[in-house]
Amino acid sequence: MNINHGFLQLEENIETTIYEGLLKLGFENDDSFSIYYDLDLLNHLLETSFTTNEECLLHLNDFIVFVSNRLKDIKITLERNRFNFTVFQNGIEYINQHNGDNMFLKDLITKVKGHVFTLDDILEIFRKYSGDFVCEEIENSEFQYVIYFKDNAVDKFKYCFTFDQMGGYYHRLLDFSYWKVMDEES
User: What is the CA radius of gyration of the chain?
Assistant: First the structure.
C-alpha cells in the first residue's frame, strides 16, 4: 500500500467534489465547504481496510498534515457515522484556482444548472471533449442513463442522468460509488 497514493486520491476527490459545488453555488471569499464520506468510500480512496471509523479518523490526521500546504485548515470530524470534511476559505481559494481549467465540468454545470436540458444537450458536451465515451440506458430507480469517458484522463466520473416532467437531473459518481448504487438496486 502506498499511503501517499491514497492521500493523493482522496485530495483529488475532495478538490473535484468541492469544485463541482463551487460551480453550482458560486464562491464567496468567506465561504467554507463541507462534504461527507462513508468509511467504505474512504477505504477505497485511501487504499486501506479500516474496520472502524476511529481507526480511519486517526489515520486522517496524517492526511491533514499531507494537504496542509494546499487545503489549509481542513477539519475532519465524525457526524452520525460519516466523516465530515470541511475546507475553509484559503483551501477553497486554492481549489477554485487549481481546478479552473476543468472546462468540461464548467460546460456541464452551466448546461444543467436550470434543469432544462436534454440527453442530446449532454451528449454534445461530452463530444466536445472526446468522441470516445459511453452512453447507456440503465435499469435503476434513480437514473435512466449513465455517461462517462472511456479515458479517465478526460474525466474519471460516471454521470447518471434522469429526465422527467420537472426537467433533467444528474449525479456524479466514482466507479466505486456507481457500482455500489447499482448493486444495492439488484
Answer: 17
Instruction: Note whether 42 and 80 are same-domain residues.
Output: yes
Which residue's entry shows cell 469517458? Answer: 149
> Quick one: 69 and 125 in the same domain?
no
Q: Where among 80, 98, 116 does a domain terminate?
A: 98
Question: DSSP string of 8-44?
Answer: HHHHHHHHHHHHHHHHHH---TT--EEEEE-HHHHHH
What is residue 155's DSSP assignment? -
- Digit-coded pLDDT (tens) for 135-172: 999 988 889 999 999 999 999 999 999 998 888 999 99
Residue located via cell numbers 466520473: 157
Question: In terms of domains, do 93 and 45 share one?
Answer: yes
- Model confidence, pTM: 0.91
Do residues 86 and 75 touch, judged by C-beta distance below 8 A?
A: yes
Whole-number Å distance between alpha carbons of 108 and 112: 6
Q: Would the CA dihedral through 147, 20, 186, 6 be positive or negative?
A: positive
What domain range includes position 51? 3-98
CA distances from 182 to 30, 156, 163, 175 (A): 38, 18, 18, 10
What average pLDDT does the chain have? 93
